[in-house]
Amino acid sequence: MKGALGFGGITLGFMAAALGVLTMGVGIHRRDGRIMATGRQFVFMVLLGAVVAAGAMEWALVTHDFSLAYVVRNHARSTPLLYTVAALWGALEGSILLWALVLAGYLTVTVRRLRARASEPLVAWATLVGLVVAAFFFALMLGPANPFKATSGLIPADGLGPNPLLQNHVLMAIHPPMLYLGYVGMTIPFSFAVAALITGRVGEGWLLETRRATLVAWAFLSVGIVLGAWWSYEVLGWGGYWAWDPVENASFIPWLTATAFLHSVVVQERRGMLRVWNLSLIIATFCLTILGTFLTRSGVLNSVHAFSQSDIGAWLLTFLGLAAATGIGLIAWRGDRLRTPGRIDSPVSREGAFLANNLLFAGFAFVVLLGTVFPLLVEALRNEKLSVGEPYFERMTVPLGLALLFLMAVAPALPWRAASGEVLRRRLGVPAWIGALTMAACAVLGARGVAEIAAFGLGAFAVAGIVRQYALGVAATRRAAGVGWPGALRRTVAGNRRLYGGLVVHTGVVVIAVALAASMGYTTKREFHLTPGQRVTLQSHHFTYLGTTRHQTGQKDTVQARVRVERGGKELGVYAPALSIFPNAPGGSAIGTPSVRTGILRDVYLTLVASPDQDGRITLGVQLSPLVVWLWVGGGIIVFGTGIAVWPARRARRRSSTGPDPLDPPAPPVPSADEMLQEAPA
Amino acid sequence: MDVIDPPPVPVTVVRSRPKRMRYLVAGGLCAAAVLFLVVGGLSRNIVYFRTVSEAVRAHDHAPADTGRLRMAGAVVTGSVVRAADGVSFKVTEGGVTASVFHHGDPPELFKDGAPVVCEGRWQGDSFDSDRIMIKHGAEYRPPSVDPNPAR
Description:
The structure holds 2 protein chains of 2 kinds. By secondary structure, chain A is an alpha+beta fold. Chain A contains 22 helices and 11 strands. Chain A has helices at 2-30, 33-62, 69-74, 81-86, 92-113, 121-142, 171-185, 187-199, 205-236, 246-271, 275-297, 312-333, 335-338, 350-382, 390-410, 421-444, 450-481, 485-495, 497-521, 629-646, 650-654, 673-679, and strands spanning 385-388, 524-530, 535-538, 541-552, 557-567, 570-575, 578-582, 589-593, 595-597, 602-610, 618-626. In chain A, helix 10 (246-271) packs antiparallel against helix 14 and helix 11 (275-297) runs antiparallel to helix 12. By secondary structure, chain B is α+β, with helices and mostly antiparallel strands. In chain B, a hairpin with a 2-residue loop joins strand 3 and strand 4 (86-93). Chain B is elongated and about 75 Å long. The interface between A and B is large, with 48 and 38 residues.
């Protein structure tokens, strides 16, 4: 029954999307606003279909309806409620369903926001393109990825339960939806980019329409990536958070191109340049999200993450090829309209820095993409299996990351068009000195590693520049408006949300960069064999093995080792790294659960490598990693900064949605930060 | 392609041809250098994945090649000997057996008959491993429920 309901929802979604595409097409062809308005309504039907289907699946999961094959494979009666709900995105079919649901949501919001302008060619075409993408994902579920396939044969009394790795941390319930909100959100700017190319309105209009959607999707993608790293750190128990695993890369590559896009659109808005580049970037980002789905969901990779296998791969590859061909073909077709009058006058200017930023991001994306797909290409061409080692990624990406950090410190201070030496000295002098002194201090204090010291120095350089920009802006507002510091801060930020929100995001990125450098460069790792009562020491931390306890639930059989951790005579508590055997996973699957003491300066990361042998001896893995917690804090700062940037300005919120873009409010009574910087005293 | 309408705000002097050429050449050289570095880095960090029989055949063919590789096979029953700094054992696949020395503790489910993937390099005729993964395929589920087509 739930199966029929769910499949009905999918059918409704597909029919609505297909009819919507047809109706919009007819409406656009006849230039008939009423037909287009009807076509627009189909978006709501698509959403209804997706909600019904997802609801039916959740209902089936929660009520243990094992007549559905998906429920049998991803749920067991003993599965806790949270992971039961999360099972919707635990495997291929369900995650395609989630994808369709999120896409329907994004389309609905976009269509509603632009309802007054539904018959404008750009909006109409964008709606059509969005519906085409939706139709594809619903078609996937009608065909190779039907989540509502009935169980073949007898209906079992119990299911297999979700993959053990997916059922022992809360983050597993949050990380995939975040990632999908980011991935799928890129469909909106893609739709508008394609619409802009089709209609020939390749100016800045499509950028303004999608600016906020892109930022929101980008923020979700960022959070998804950070949460994925956190989950890996807390669950997988190897002590790290990023392994350059193809599945991690699949989420990271579109993030890189999307980040490049967020920067280069500013150049187009300001100077009308880089049109082809921006269109290419957003089309590439969309294609990379499809590629990521292909990599992670088709079973093409032999990786710990790639849980599913099916013939969906061919469908996704075909769609990827179509999307890429459409994009490239349209850009080639519109080539004549895309030429722009502007030029970059000097490499030492804001637009020059943006261009360099974009080249670095594109290079970064290329390096990661190559390392990710190279094994697949070799396997396809030479039938040899291989993987690309982590050293490749580290050696290639660290210099790129440092160069980006440098640009992040310098670029926000550069004026448009050209910078004089005088301006550079005034704006960058103090921050550069702070950066240089930080590097010197690190070196004197005995910090090892050129890359690490460079990261700390460049981070200090960037943060000093950000603080300077904030301080000057707030001080000027205070003088001009005669208000106190808090009021001045509020007004300054409200006056140019994108700039000040962006600077907060940059701060988050610096925090992450510093945490990455510290935790990758200065982690200590040891394994100890311990009998109960035995005590060992690592870097003035003492570890006493107290004993083990066993828990047995229907879900898993767990051995926990209790370990007392002390530092300098102070007890930090008793930690319990564990090993769990999942009986539902045939052949036995052992999953270690690390126990982490999170600290502001360092994490103590304990793993149970081997449970007690016949002599009662365990193997305990101990790892001391500095500043890891700041990775997650940095992720939070990025979200906060993006929130500042996308928050609608007060005046614009009262106005109708047809008003000017709220991200770009009319000039505030005080000079904008950019202008102030031009005039700021030394 | 140079014949375009003059810019609406002709503040800047349009760059002369030789200067443009120079930028193009510089850009091309940069791109070539980057490509060279990337391809070099890639080829130096490839880890081959081979079964025991493939790995032994390749090693016999070119014993001097001691690049990192992953070797998949099953632990030979009764071959596991624990040492102070690791464990030595034999792995077998396709009728071929190889000796492995693993530095450090093997993972929890390491035992006689377990399907393992060892990562490391050849050291003479013994395989020097520093990482063991217990292999349950890409899919942890039994083949009867979710058929895992052989590659």
